[in-house]
Amino acid sequence: MLKDQISDAIKTAMKARELEKVKVLRNVQAVIKQIEIDRQIALDDHGVLEVLQKQTKQRQESLAIFQDNGREDLAQKEKFEIDVISEFLPQALSEDELSVLVDAEIAQQGATSMQQMGSVMNALKAQTTGRADPALLSKLVKARLG
Question: Domain of life of the organism in this record (predicted)?
């Protein structure tokens, strides 16, 4: 399981005295545990992937802000954290691969208008969790249905 892989990575990083990496992974682990406690469920790999994707997105937004404001020191920290978290995400799909999935899902559902976008997006999100940016997915679906 993905949670076990994160725990193992923390142990490995601790033995290697990679304190910054340990801090990032413990932060992610704490977010996962907090969600499990709040919802009173045990997250499966799919749920953990969603958390990892959200954590990556938050850091990418911070990275953009820091770069815009000329704070390279903070930008480097965010880049490092993104790299650490990305180790646990599956290989991202290319825009071409996403286009094929979008076309297939629209054809399967027979979607013809923006009113069906929600059902198409829900199906695609389930198929691409952790492997595609939901914003890009949304853009592709809108282009096909709009």
Answer: Bacteria
The model carries a pTM of 0.77
Rounded CA separation 56/84 (Å): 10
- Which residue shows structure tokens 């959200």? 54
User: Cβ distance 102 to 137 under 8 Å?
Assistant: yes
Q: Are 80 and 62 in contact (CB under 8 A)?
A: no
- Report residue 110 CA to chain centroid gap: 28
| Contact by Cβ (8 Å): 90, 119 | no
CB atoms closer than 10 angstroms to residue 109: 12
CB distance 116 to 145 below 8 Å: yes
Interatomic CA distance for residues 73 and 27, integer angstroms: 20
Mean pLDDT of all residues in 58-75: 96
What is the tens place of the pLDDT at every residue in 18-30?
A: 999 999 999 999 9
Residue pair 53/130 in contact by the 8 Å Cβ criterion: yes
Cα 144 from Cα 146, distance rounded (Å): 6
